[in-house]
User: What shape does this take?
Amino acid sequence: MTDIELAEHGAALSVRLDDAVGRALVTSRLVEAAPDPYLPGRWRVKARGKVGVATVTVPGGRPFTLRIVPKVPVARLLFLLGYSLDSKGWRNEDAELEEESELLPALARLFERQAEHALRQGLLQGYRTTEDTSLLVRGRIREADQIRRHHGSLIPVEIIHDEYTADIAENQLLRTACEWLCRLPRGIPDDVRGTLLRLRVRLADITPIGRRQELPTWWPSRLNARYHKALRLAELVLRGASVEHRPGNVTVSGFLFDMARVFEDFVTVALRDAFTGSGGRCVLQATHHLDERHAIRMIPDFVRYADDGTPLAVADAKYKAEKLEGFPDADLYQMLAYCTALGLPDGHLVYAKGNAPHAAHRVRHARITIHQHALELDQPPAGLLAEVRALAQRLTAAVPC
Assistant: This one.
């Protein structure tokens, strides 16, 4: 069985697959897969909005790699991913990656550099709240647990205390990202893998994060400033690596990103930044209702409000134009509902350029105009952010602030 490479927006490929593997790909929903009706023993496989790498493992067989190549250059994709996590500190990160052609090696190399820089001055330490059973009292006694577990006995004591340690969220994220990248069977350059292994040794006493555990929360501060970029990358690695499916005896594990989510996160965060200092407030994923009884919930991607809470503008990010059978203009109907519920005369749909044209649609009898905008993703960050700022001006051009 050979490795498979798909283009993000490419046509379906006919490949020879075992039925168990084909069914596993269908169940995983990472790609579109169906038996080829004309060639027995072959399956037609097509990308379905995700990019990255997945490994398919069959008991007794050689793992094969499914690689989905993004439409935009890897450096631009990493900028989009990183900006939504840290818009102030991510503007120049892609300058180091112009020659990288694949997502996983590029991200691994960038993480390795930043993690090595973060640990150069030693492991960060901090206070961690710990619950423990002890023969000595330190911190505070957990009275309810003491009574429930020990029925009036004086020892042992159920306590809660703050411990100064290196086993904190920041180091746990770095260790787990190092481990996951080192476990990959292929795709990581040897020099990068060597550095990751050395970093893993330095983090040997740190507790790793379990695969099904929530990522621990950390807060940017002056004390952990040297860790910031490495931590943002660690979060990208661990979120991208969270894909795993086990249909039957076949394991499909992936390092994949949903491009629709990547685009939505970037657009909404960049729009919020564009309105900084202009008054009012911006809410991402705001909850509203279409009907008066609040039975039909709506969640626009982006809503800007005046200081008194009045909606001023609404926008939705759509990586690709929706073409549902029977509803060829589903995006427009959705935005019409948003404008109606929010009492706005204009609504804005934001697409990636090439997937929808610039257009404006005046709705009959409704006095509502729906605008379609397109952002050019394949350009340097400065140009892309300038486009978003221009878009922000369009959002409020007809609205008094």
Remarks:
- The two ends are 61 Å apart (CA to CA).
- The mean pLDDT is 84.
- The longest helix spans residues 103-119.
